[in-house]
Design goal:
heterodimer; A: 395 residues; seven-stranded mixed sheet; six-stranded mixed sheet; 15 strands; 35% helix; globular; B: 209 residues; alpha/beta; three-stranded parallel sheet; 8 helices
């Protein structure tokens, strides 16, 4: 069952995932506003993300959410504490709650609103996440021409970032941020890249992500740390990205923000998940990918662990460890399970924790897809960008 | 509420909540102290049940006995703040919410144990028949939807280590082995915390400096 975006005025969009997931939804909001300029959109995102969106004219309101862990209930503030989002949904014409869609693509969720409940159907026609997100909002992706996210760096933020980077004169500013929330989207050799970059361009200014609260500026004269303020860290990181000529990044939140900023040329690392890539709608972007080169690709799994690694990890368990894992999954009382293995409940619990930790450790081994990406492959793309710019100047 | 031998707690709790509720329903699990006379002093409707060493078994029965549209449930050792009590009526008038969880301020022997339990919330106010309690300890009730809210005004849950140890010893016959282990671990953490705090403050085991 469909519904028309043009006929609905009061929208609630909820997204409780990572930064990238939320940034992508600016594409959807932009399209809703294009189709229906009267639309009022309220956007629910986790507390720490609201700063990224509340200066955008796309949203009439950006509402912080907090997840109450007992029952995984997402809530928004109200006068006496926090109230579940389910309580406010009936006050909107239409609600798109992405909690029920993308990550749980095998499940069906409901769109609720004053005018009834719409059953979402799994739409496997769209593998690209932007298209999928548009599809869930009942917008045909084929009709949307600009699928770049929206982000706005404020002038004072730009000034701060310029001072913080303090690039060498006529130097290219090259950003590095290769950490993503999932194992298979993270490139683990970021530390090797500066050496390659300086060999190719000794005058480069490298701005490398260190952790949630700091970046490091590297030039031929040495390193300098940029420490971010706790409350402004995300926005300051985005401001630093706005200063970059090139951004070598993982397929993650900052990659989408860089795209939204619009002035940064990006090299995005993709592994064996081409179906999920956003890059096909991004401009000024080159991708480094291994699709098709590995027996396990393409990989459309979205799990945090590589399934090949998981299988290998299972093979590494001893018979005893396998028994422990299997019994613990049967939901037997610990003392009964312990009897079956001739141990005490405490002993069984320790064995289970140890076997589980071993599984997790082995599953975290860097997957083949990531290992197949090398600094040389990345440098090839960077050199292409330099060549293209040179050619443009000559022209 | 479901209680057993809670004379002292009820003497504090019943006068505190009585002005804010329409009726008080008590399920008495075979108390041997003066619990019943305190209940009668405050006009509570009492239903007698056998001693089970676990309140959870009789919760559904207890809340079913209420005649109102909303249930405000407490255990005998819980003390709602005045702000919370004053807002009860207002909360029940909100058509969007079916169940309220209240923040718990947990202390043992006067020492804050939020680092052990985290910021706890428990469902304490709901539309009648909305919740279905399990008869096992340490489980959350079943709820048909998530039209719920979390209230910051706290319920004080102040206990003594001695009391927790007594209850734990009595409950051993009523709860599953995993839950016994869970309670043991909790008790050990609390004992360590109390020892550490009292050690830091130079307090002797009899409570004197």
């Amino acid at each position: 069952m469909g519904y028309s975006p043009t006929a609905r005025n009061k929208w609630l969009i909820c997204r409780f995932g990572g930064i990238g997931d939320a940034v992508i939804l600016t594409v959807i909001a932009k399209e809703i506003k294009r189709l229906n300029p009267q639309a009022q959109i309220h956007f629910c995102v986790p507390e720490h993300q609201i700063g990224l969106f509340n200066n955008l004219s796309l949203f009439e309101k950006v509402i912080p959410t907090k997840r109450f862990s007992h029952q995984q209930i997402d809530c928004i503030p109200f006068e006496d504490g926090w109230i579940s989002i389910e309580c406010i949904k009936p006050h909107y014409d239409i609600v798109i709650d992405y909690k029920f869609s993308i990550e749980n693509n095998g499940q069906y969720g409901n769109l609720t609103g004053k005018q009834g409940t719409f059953m979402l159907t799994q739409n496997s026609n769209y593998q690209n996440w932007i298209d999928l997100s548009l599809g869930w909002a009942d917008i045909d992706p084929e009709t949307v021409f600009d699928k770049r996210p929206v982000y706005k760096v404020e002038p004072e933020e730009e000034k701060w970032a310029k001072r913080a980077v303090n690039a060498l004169p006529n130097s290219k500013v090259i950003g590095l941020q290769l950490t993503a929330s999932s194992l298979t989207r993270t490139f683990y050799a970021q530390e090797q890249l500066p050496r390659y970059i300086f060999e190719f361009d000794p005058d480069a200014t490298i701005v490398a992500y260190a952790n949630d609260l700091s970046w490091v500026v590297l030039t031929k004269f040495g390193p300098k740390r940029i420490t971010l303020e706790q409350d402004k860290a995300l926005r300051q990181s985005a401001a630093l990205i706005s200063q970059m000529d090139y951004f070598i990044c993982a397929d993650s939140g900052f990659a989408h923000i860089a795209q939204a900023i619009g002035t940064v040329k990006q090299i995005i690392i993709y592994t064996t998940v081409p179906g999920w890539t956003r890059a096909k709608y991004f401009t000024k972007t080159k991708t480094v990918e291994t699709a098709g080169k590995l027996p396990c690709s393409p990989c459309f799994l979205i799990h945090r662990y590589c399934p090949v690694n998981m299988k290998r990890a299972e093979e590494q368990l001893s018979d005893r460890e396998r028994q422990v894992m299997s019994l613990s999954q049967q939901n037997l009382p610990f003392h009964q399970a312990a009897l079956q293995l001739n141990t005490t409940p405490e002993g069984l619990q320790s064995e289970f924790q140890a076997a589980n930790a071993k599984m997790q450790g082995l599953a975290n081994i860097v997957p083949d897809c990531i290992l197949s990406i090398t600094p040389e492959m990345i440098m090839e793309k960077l050199k292409e960008f330099y060549e293209e710019e040179k050619a443009l100047k000559v022209a | 509420m479901v209680i057993a031998n809670e004379e002292e707690n009820l003497r504090e709790l019943l006068p505190l909540v009585k002005p804010y509720v329409d009726e008080i329903i008590i399920v008495n699990q075979d108390s041997t102290d003066n619990t019943l006379s305190v209940c009668s002093e405050f006009g509570a409707k009492v239903f007698n049940k056998t001693r089970k060493f676990l309140a959870d078994i009789d919760r559904n029965f207890c809340y079913q006995m209420a005649t109102g549209d909303w249930i405000f449930a407490l255990d005998a050792d819980e003390r709602p703040s005045i702000k919370l009590l004053e807002n009860l009526r207002k909360q029940t008038e909100n058509p969007d919410v079916d169940c309220y969880w209240f923040a718990f301020d947990n202390k043992v022997d006067g020492i804050d144990i939020s680092d052990i339990l985290g910021q706890e919330y428990h469902p304490r106010l709901w539309r009648k028949n909305y919740l279905q309690w399990s008869d096992r300890a340490h489980t959350w009730p079943q709820m048909p939807n998530i039209k719920q809210a979390f209230i910051s005004a706290p319920v004080q849950h102040y206990r003594t280590l001695q009391r927790i140890e007594q209850v734990h010893a009595l409950r051993k016959q009523a709860i599953a082995p995993q839950n016994q282990m869970l309670e043991e671990r909790f008790l050990n953490s609390v004992r360590q915390k109390i020892k550490a705090v009292k050690g830091e403050n130079g307090i002797q085991s009899n409570g004197q400096k």
